[in-house]
Amino acid sequence: MSVKVIMERTVKAGKEKELAELLKELRSRALRQPGYISGETLLDVDQPRTQIVISEWHSLDEWRKWAANAQRQEIVKGIERLLEQPTKTRVFIDAWGLPTSYSHV
């Protein structure tokens, strides 16, 4: 069952270009990871320094492996320095595909 990972970030004023470069690097590396399906980056129309990144993965396990990847962690450290507050990350699964015995992921 695939999962979608939604990350919300608010970049500090003047750091937008640096963030965009790091996000491109992160996406480039994610493309080569087992289980990666797709990703997109969206800007809040009313607050353009706030971005949402949505990525889709074949499984929760594959996402967790990528989340723990040392190369990813280095890029994430650089990203976090550019933000007003830490990244908010949430992981979602398709509610209609849940087994009847579902309690938690």
Q: Can you count the beta strands?
A: 4
Number of domains: 1
Structural class: alpha+beta
Helix content: 25-40%
Number of helices: 3
State the low-pLDDT regions, or none: none
Categorize the overall geometry.
globular
Order of helices and strands: EHEEHHE
The biggest beta sheet, please?
A: 4 strands, antiparallel
- Give me the CATH fold name: Alpha-Beta Plaits
Q: What's the gyration radius in Å?
A: 15 Å
Give the mean pLDDT. Answer: 92
Short characterization:
The protein is an alpha+beta fold and 105 residues long.
Molecular structure report:
The chain is of the alpha+beta class and 105 residues long. The protein has one domain (3-95): 2-Layer Sandwich (Alpha-Beta Plaits), CATH 3.30.70.100. It is 34% helix and 29% strand. The protein has helices at 16-30, 60-68, 70-81, and strands at 3-10, 36-43, 50-57, 88-93. The protein has a four-stranded antiparallel β-sheet. α1 (16-30) runs antiparallel to α3 (70-81). The model has no long low-confidence stretch (mean pLDDT 92).
